[in-house]
Amino acid sequence: MAQETLWIRLRKGAETQLIIRGGKEEQVTMLAARLYVKAHGKRRFVIALKYEGEEDYRYLVASDMSWRHTDIARIYTLRWLVEVFIQDWKAHCGWNRLSKQQGADGSQRGVILSLLCEHMLLLHPEQFVLLKNKQAGMPAGCLIERLNAEALLATVKSVVESEDPDTELKALALALEHTLPKRESSRHMAGRDLGEQKATDSLKAHARKFKLLDAA
């Protein structure tokens, strides 16, 4: 990036407001130029960007030079949407958490199952109405929570409306007891060998001897 660094030194960036992730605005310093990038072997749209309070520039290199540099910088702030999507997969769609097969094959199958889960959630009545009216859909986590609540309400309703609610309630409680896992917490040192954590008789004698020597 030697050419780009020299370009930075020769020019002063312009201060402007950049919309971050489609929401708040932040003060940034930017400058852009279409430069020949030796590592790529061709001309690229190079954008130097630094946020308020930063001393060093970060570089954005775009292959499509028909965009405005402000639009490229704005789209750059949306890159974390990929991380949010992956977090949704891990937390709510079973990817990586419920995987029974490790390695590349396991990850590939996990992604496929997660995608199927996402597509099935598109059929949820509330989600379907939102998308049909061209509104922003609900995230997977929100839909999963709604489905869990709907399932709980349906179960409670079936217990209440049954001919023998007491028996059905006991059966439900027993099923929940067998379903909920008992997990050991490594953070609380469960199942760890912590040693005896007490003084031994021989070392007590040594300690008394050292005290006598110190007193003398």
Question: Could you name the key traits of this structure?
Answer:
216 residues, RNaseH-like_sf, 50% helix, flat, alpha+beta, Transposase_11, 8 helices, 4-stranded antiparallel sheet
> How many DSSP-defined strands?
4
- Overall outline: flat
Main sheet strand line-up: 1-2-3-4
State which percent range the strand residues make up.
Answer: 15-25%
Rg measurement, Å? 30 Å
Distance between the termini: 72 Å
Structural class: alpha+beta
Largest sheet: 4 strands, antiparallel
Q: Quick check: average pLDDT?
A: 79
User: Tally the helices: what do you get?
Assistant: 8
Stretches where pLDDT is under 50 for at least 5 consecutive residues are: none
Along the chain, the helix and strand elements come as HEEEEHHHHHHH
Helix content percent band: 40-55%
Describe this entry's structure for a reader:
With 216 residues, the protein is an alpha+beta fold. Among the domains are: 78 residues, no CATH class; 65 residues, no CATH class. Helices cover 50% and strands 16% of the residues. The protein has a four-stranded antiparallel sheet with strand order 1-2-3-4. A hairpin with a 4-residue loop joins strand 2 and strand 3. The longest helix has 21 residues. The radius of gyration is 30 Å and the shape is flat. The N and C termini lie far apart (72 Å). The model has no long low-confidence stretch (mean pLDDT 79).
In short:
By secondary structure, this protein is an alpha+beta fold. The protein has eight helices and four strands, in the order αββββααααααα.
